[in-house]
């Protein structure tokens, strides 16, 4: 049955993934992405069918074409953080969601990431976060990347912060971070160092627990 | 947008993981959403039409009836659905608002019904989408004006007076509603008669009469029978003054009355006489005095009280004031441009009449209004005519109906508006809620009192006029060319007049002197549809806009042509 559904639903037919902004509107009307079958997605993620349905209905309502491009992503994120400039952080987030580097987020990407962040194991969540911080995807977080991320977060927070951050200068914040994470003092943080350090930190662990069942 | 927030909220929360490791403290717990994701389908029965929607869809707008717990009052336990005894057609639009986040205004619906539905469901009209907002606003404004006008009409009806009204109130009522009493009616007709007499006297006193014995030169009748005319004028002015004072006395609010248009017209009509009485008979001021006498022609506007058509015309002008203003402005621009060009083109020529740019203004104005100049122009300017009459191109496609209304106005007096259907066709293409019935009602306005548009002819007519006034249609170009044109001629060749709305040929021979101005009644030349006009639909009307003026630059005179 799943196979029938799977074959009946069309495959991805993403055409002309051009990055030209002027063509974006036109592109949206041409590009139409349909996700794989419900069963497949259910298997791949930690959501059940109902949740996937709800998510998809909302997603489809917002993006009838089936994909989210970076501009839309930034706009959405800005809605939640109107006090600051969320565009930089949204950009990094977008890259983290867009695992295939296609320039747009399909529903599968969206749901996969949500599944990890909301229903995944602690390790998976931390891995995802590491991936987010590692801007150039080279497996290491160096100081520049970290500074960029922290600055982006500060920009986004604007005057109000959630969680509450003290008014550290980004540099001090980065230094503190490296102090904690970089065990072998080589100037970069690897995935293992990151995982290890985070699991040591009680605050982080407790906070991660809160993300269960946010959906 | 509410829907967006609801959809992306889990994503936003999840993305907060990103700054977790950077946080120094533990994050506070996120608010638990108890109205869980267990989505269910709700059934809404609106007068028998069953609608179904997700509960979440309705929850998007919690401050409306359907989004809040208020809908529980309408829940029918037996059928497990929400029952509303309202219009299902309208509900469709309301529900679409929840679904898409945009509220659209259905054009075929009555604006008041729509407003009532919105009020019932707790939706503010301000959120109507941009696509429909303009239409909504226009209709609302139109409706409000119509209502205001209707209530005004209702107040001014012939309802019997309250028993304890003072004589002042009764007098005012008699003035405003002549039908209420015989005396008022008599007075109404008498004033009307005297207005007509006054106007005719003004006209007749300039007619040349046979000269008295012993003189060769023709005299205008005004001078020959000076005493008679003076007496008639005095009588009229006395009556008008008496009427004005009576109205002033009777008016419930004197300040308001004095500021009203009709009162101003009354004053302007009688002031010249009194000023003339007190003015000394010396030469210097007599010129000014003559000018004052021109104001006597304003007495004709006193007919507004007697004629509804005139009032409607006045409202039309008033409500199209901005368009008229723009028209004037653009004409001025064009005049300045062409005058400048003409001046510099003619600068080198000896004996050119374009001695300065303001002097060129006259030439330009006269040509643009297709009157044609009287002096001959040099070869240069003959080869370079300014761009003739004001084309619709200048006015833009939006304003071409401006000119059509002028034709319509003419038809009011004549019932022979052959282009009426064209006009109504044209109107249908406008996006401003025109109705064909309007043109029929306007054209039959002066004729039979019955109308096709409603049970109450007067109301329908006024409504039609209001609609007309509210559209962007405007009357003729005001200052440059009145409904009468001025004919400027050196010879006494009668201009060509061709149409049903004819001037009396005799009128044109009124003044045979050189360089005299004559008022002539405009005529609509039956147009030879020879002009392609990009903005107008094919109709004979465009032909009127470009007038044959090929010979305007020669010695010959003028043709009277209308716009």
UniProtKB/TrEMBL annotation, chain A:
Residue span, EF-hand domain: 85-120, 121-156, 169-204
GO molecular function: calcium ion binding; potassium channel activity; potassium channel regulator activity; transmembrane transporter binding
Main location: membrane
CDD domains, alphabetized: EFh
Keywords, sorted A to Z: Calcium, Cell membrane, Ion channel, Ion transport, Membrane, Metal-binding, Potassium, Potassium channel, Potassium transport, Repeat, Transport, Voltage-gated channel
Subcellular locations according to the entry: Cell membrane
SMART domains: EFh
GO term, biological process aspect, one: regulation of potassium ion transmembrane transport
Region (Disordered): 1-22
Stated family: Belongs to the recoverin family.
Name assigned to this protein: Potassium voltage-gated channel interacting protein 1
Automatic annotation (TrEMBL), chain B:
Cellular component GO terms held in the UniProt record: dendritic spine; neuronal cell body; postsynaptic membrane; voltage-gated potassium channel complex
Region (Disordered): 143-165, 438-457
Cellular compartments annotated: Membrane
UniProt xrefs under InterPro entries: BTB/POZ_dom, Ion_trans_dom, K_chnl_volt-dep_Kv, K_chnl_volt-dep_Kv4, K_chnl_volt-dep_Kv4_C, Shal-type_N, SKP1/BTB/POZ_sf, T1-type_BTB
Keyword field: Ion channel, Ion transport, Membrane, Potassium, Potassium channel, Potassium transport, Signal, Transmembrane, Transmembrane helix, Transport, Voltage-gated channel
GO molecular function, one term: A-type (transient outward) potassium channel activity
Listed transmembrane segments: 183-204, 224-245, 257-275, 324-345, 357-375
Lipid bilayer topology: Multi-pass membrane protein
Residues in BTB domain copies: 40-139
Highest taxon above the source species: Eukaryota
One of the protein's GO biological processes: protein homooligomerization
First and last residue of the signal peptide: 1-16
Protein name: Potassium voltage-gated channel, Shal-related subfamily, member 1
């Amino acid at each position: 049955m799943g196979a029938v559904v799977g074959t009946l639903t069309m495959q991805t037919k993403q055409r002309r993934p051009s990055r030209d902004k002027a063509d974006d509107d036109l592109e949206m009307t041409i590009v139409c992405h349909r996700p794989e079958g419900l069963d497949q997605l259910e298997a791949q993620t930690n959501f059940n069918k109902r949740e996937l349905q709800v998510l998809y209905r909302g997603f489809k309502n917002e993006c009838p074409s089936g994909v989210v491009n970076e501009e839309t992503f930034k706009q959405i994120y800005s809605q939640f953080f109107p006090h600051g400039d969320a565009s930089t952080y949204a950009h990094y987030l977008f890259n983290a969601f867009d695992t295939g580097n296609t320039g747009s987020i399909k529903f599968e990407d969206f749901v996969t990431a949500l599944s990890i962040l909301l229903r995944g194991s602690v390790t998976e969540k931390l891995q995802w976060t590491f991936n987010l911080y590692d801007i150039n995807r080279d497996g290491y977080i160096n100081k520049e990347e970290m500074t960029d991320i922290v600055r982006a977060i500060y920009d986004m927070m604007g005057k109000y912060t959630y969680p509450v951050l003290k008014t550290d200068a980004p540099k001090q914040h980065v230094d503190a971070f490296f102090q904690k994470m970089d065990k072998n003092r080589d100037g970069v943080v690897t995935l293992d160092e990151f995982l290890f350090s985070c699991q040591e930190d009680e605050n982080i662990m407790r906070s991660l627990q809160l993300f269960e069942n946010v959906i | 947008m509410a829907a967006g927030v609801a959809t992306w909220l889990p994503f936003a929360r999840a993305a907060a993981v990103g700054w977790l490791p950077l946080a120094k403290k533990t994050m506070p717990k996120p608010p638990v959403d108890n109205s869980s994701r267990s989505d269910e389908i709700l059934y809404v029965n609106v007068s028998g039409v069953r609608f179904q929607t997700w509960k979440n869809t309705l929850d998007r707008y919690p401050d409306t009836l359907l989004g809040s717990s208020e809908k529980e009052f309408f829940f029918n336990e037996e059928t497990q659905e929400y029952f509303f005894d309202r219009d299902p057609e309208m509900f469709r639009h309301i529900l679409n608002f929840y679904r898409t986040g945009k509220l659209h205004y259905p054009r075929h619906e009555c604006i008041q019904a729509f407003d009532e539905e919105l009020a019932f469901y707790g939706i503010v009209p301000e959120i109507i989408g941009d696509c429909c907002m303009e239409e909504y606003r226009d209709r609302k404004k139109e409706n409000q004006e119509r209502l205001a006008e209707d209530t005004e009409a209702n107040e001014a009806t012939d309802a019997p007076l309250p028993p304890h009204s003072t004589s002042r109130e009764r007098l005012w009522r008699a003035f405003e509603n002549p039908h209420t009493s015989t005396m008022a009616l008599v007075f109404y007709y008498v004033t009307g008669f005297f207005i007509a007499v006054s106007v005719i006297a003004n006209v007749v006193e300039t007619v040349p009469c046979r000269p008295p014995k012993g003189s060769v030169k023709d005299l205008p009748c005004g001078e020959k029978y000076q005493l008679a005319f003076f007496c008639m004028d005095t009588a009229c002015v006395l009556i008008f003054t008496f009427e004005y004072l009576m109205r002033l006395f009777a008016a419930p609010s004197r300040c308001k009355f004095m500021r009203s248009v009709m009162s101003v017209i009354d004053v302007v009509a009688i002031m010249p006489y009194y000023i003339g009485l007190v003015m000394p008979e010396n030469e210097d001021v007599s010129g000014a005095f003559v000018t004052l006498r021109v104001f006597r022609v304003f007495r004709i506007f006193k007919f507004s009280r007697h004629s509804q058509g005139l009032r409607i015309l006045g409202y039309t002008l008033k409500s199209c004031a901005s368009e008229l203003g723009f028209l004037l402005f653009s004409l001025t621009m064009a005049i300045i441009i062409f005058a400048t060009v003409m001046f510099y083109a003619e600068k080198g020529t000896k004996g050119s009449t374009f001695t300065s740019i303001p002097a060129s203004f006259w030439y330009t104005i006269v040509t643009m209004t297709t009157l044609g100049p009287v002096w001959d122009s040099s070869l240069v300017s003959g080869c370079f005519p300014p761009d003739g009459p004001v084309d619709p191109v200048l006015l833009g496609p939006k304003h071409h109906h401006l000119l059509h209304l002028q034709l319509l106005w003419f038809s009011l007096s004549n019932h022979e508006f052959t282009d009426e259907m064209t006009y109504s066709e044209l109107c249908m293409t406008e996006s401003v809620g025109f109705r064909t019935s309007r043109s029929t009602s306007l054209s039959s306005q002066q004729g039979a009192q019955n109308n096709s548009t409603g049970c109450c002819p007067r109301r329908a007519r006024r409504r039609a006029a209001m609609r007309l006034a509210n559209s962007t249609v405007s009357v003729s170009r005001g200052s440059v060319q009145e409904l009468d044109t001025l004919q400027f001629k050196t010879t006494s060749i009668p201009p060509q007049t061709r149409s049903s709305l004819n001037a009396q040929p005799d009128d044109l021979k009124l003044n045979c002197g050189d360089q005299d101005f004559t008022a002539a009644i405009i005529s609509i030349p039956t147009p030879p549809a020879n002009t392609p006009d990009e903005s107008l639909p094919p109709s004979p009307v465009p032909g009127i806009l470009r007038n044959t003026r090929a010979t305007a630059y020669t010695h010959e005179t003028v043709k009277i042509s209308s716009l």
